[in-house]
Specification:
By secondary structure, the chain is an alpha/beta fold. Helices cover 53% and strands 14% of the residues. It is globular and about 65 Å long.
Length: 295
Amino acid sequence: MKIGFIGLGIMGKPMAKNLVKAGYELTVSDKFAAAAVEELVAMGAKSAKTNAEAAREADVLITMVPNSPQVKEALFGEDGAAETLKPGSIVLDCSSINPVASREICEELAKKGVEMMDAPVSGGEPKAIDATLAFMVGGKPEIFEKVKGILEKMGSSVVLCGDIGAGNVTKLCNQIVVAINIAGLAEAMTLGQQCGVAPEKIFEAIKGGLAGSTVMNAKAPMMMDQNFKPGFRINLHIKDLNNVVDAAAKYDSPIPLTQSVLEMMKILNRDGDAACDHSSLIKYYQKLTGEQLHH
């Protein structure tokens, strides 16, 4: 099976590498990440000068770009992949975008006889590297069966959540839980330290109980180390939460906690922390207290 892959950023590059390691014939495209393209070529992938070239021979085309406009540009823009996609081929969009956009894109591709699945991921760069991402998938069950094996080479959890767009709805739910979890962790660690208890001891004591989580295990050490190298950037989480706001408005769904954390992230974004990991929510509390979290 021949795979085209568009988008070799923080997540896309390790995902593509895992497909090459799994033996797939890969053609990659990313005009903004020449070094990443070279890394993939060194592993055995082919380089495409345009997205149309990446899609020309693809049975499955994977897109992994920041948001809805970038997915539409990759497919339908100048030298877009839709120009050369074969009837019967499948677009597997692993980007995290608005589910309404997923449905619109699917309708356009269907006019060309091309199938589509939305398959956003959770896990950040570490899980992309070790191929343990969680995939939330939307689309036809029979198409899901065709691409499931590909996804399983990049992730340890692959779940069909419903029809097209259901993957991105589920991803929005995931991003709500992650954002609120990180903010709650930052608030708790700040309170504990100000009350005279070492954050490291708080983490050690509660991580094995009901409060423990994958988020806590990943983000508490980063907060204490003041290490905000991005596994998932603040500006991307803002993008996801803005999509939550749009979806909530359409269905009149209450999201007061999401709105609160979104405002925290917007403040960090204005302070120049857009490219920091979302664990940098601790900086919001450090700004309020004037005190840095530490071990």
